[in-house]
Predict the 3D structure of the following.
Amino acid sequence: MAFCSTCGTQIADGTTTCAACAGRAAATPVAAPAVSTTGGMSDNVAGMLAYFTIIPAVIFLVMEPYNKSRFVRFHAWQSLIFGVAWYILWYGLRFVGLFTFFLWPLIGLGGFIVWIILVLKANQGQMFKLPVIGDIAEKQANAM
């Protein structure tokens, strides 16, 4: 059923004018593209949440409805591998010492930007792969 855009009265399907006020009926909303859901959460939201610390990534790899989705598994694995690589890079540079002190803010900003891109791409339903990490994550997601 449609509703009048002027007075809000319910109008029969196929009718373009309102009998109560002679106003035009509101345009029917365009159907949103189908998003597959896993359990109670859509895949793109679960993939996005996998990037918020390693805890959701591990949960999505273990819990039954989410570990069936290749999309969620891919983003969970990419999140875990990216987190481990980031940890190794960050503490590796700190181990080197003050010679790399000026690089710490740049590398921190770069990692934050990559993380934002990963979160946004997962929310958009895209399987955005990082150069080396994405291939490893894809192999792990396909292996399960």
Q: What stands out?
A: Residues 1-30 form one domain. The radius of gyration is 23 Å. The first strand starts at residue 2 and ends at 3.
